[in-house]
Amino acid sequence: MIALMQEFELTQPVCLVGFMGAGKSSLAGRLARMCMIPAVDMDALIEERSGRKIAEIFAESGEAQFRAYESGLLSELASAAPAVISCGGGVVLAAENQQILKSSTCVVYLDIGFEEAHKRISDLSTRPLFADIEKARELYLQRKPLYEQLADICIDSGTKSVNEIALELQEALLAKGVLCQRQK
Ligand code: S3P
């Protein structure tokens, strides 16, 4: 067992990917606190910088504008000081994003069943692409192979607590040398 609150550092950015509701943001926060490493939530940063909620960006400027913000931010974060990056569920769609994820980051896929993901999202109004459940199911099926192809690490997030997943991920990142104990 690895001691909690030990200081660690990342050797490359760690991108958490997976469908909406997989628990990426909670996991990024928990891992960051556990290892005392920085975390960034891409959607939260897009909202902060644009002064608009994600749902407003989709409604007022369209999905393409949101995807442009998302790609610009991923490119910026991939070359910044390494952090745990909680990505939006659609980050794996654009070829330019796939290239960045593969070449410059460690991709962690949080795998969750569609029904469980749906159950977990308490406020569907914050997820424009979950407004129509059948369309959301199609997106899920389209994206699952992309998440799997890009993943360096896969974690089943459906049945475990955030804490259990954070510990599992910490061990996997240490084993890969992506997470290291900080030299004092
Ligand atoms: C999206 C997922 C959302 C957000 C936007 C689009 C998607 O993020 O980026 O609504 O295309 O799957 P979460 O995966 O954090 O919900």
H/E element string? EEHEHHHEHEHHEHE
Q: Based on CA inertia axes, which overall geometry fits?
A: globular
Give the integer mean of the pLDDT values. Answer: 94
Give unreliable regions as ranges.
none
* Spatial order of strands in the largest sheet: 3-4-2-5-6
Known CATH architecture:
3-Layer(aba) Sandwich
The level of helicity is 40-55%
Tally of individual domains: 1
Q: What is the C-alpha radius of gyration, as a whole number of Å?
A: 16 Å
Bound molecules: shikimate-3-phosphate
- The CATH topology name reads Rossmann fold
Our estimate of the beta-strand percent is 5-15%
Number of strands: 7
Number of contiguous helices: 8
Write the CATH homologous superfamily. P-loop containing nucleotide triphosphate hydrolases
Beginning-to-end CA distance, first to last residue: 21 Å
**Which structural class matches the secondary elements?**
alpha/beta
**Tell me, what is the CATH class?**
Alpha Beta
Largest sheet: 5 strands, parallel
Q: Could you characterize the architecture of this molecule?
A:
The strands form 2 sheets. A 5-stranded parallel β-sheet has the order 3-4-2-5-6, with helices on both faces. Helix 3 crosses helix 4 and helix 4 (63-78) packs parallel to helix 5. It has helices at residues 24-35, 42-50, 54-61, 63-78, 95-104, 114-120, 133-150, 162-176, and strands at 8-10, 14-17, 39-41, 84-86, 106-111, 153-156, 179-181. It has a single domain, classed as Rossmann fold (3-Layer(aba) Sandwich). With 184 residues, the chain is an alpha/beta fold. Shikimate-3-phosphate (S3P) binds at residues 20, 24, 43, 54, 88-90, 127-129.
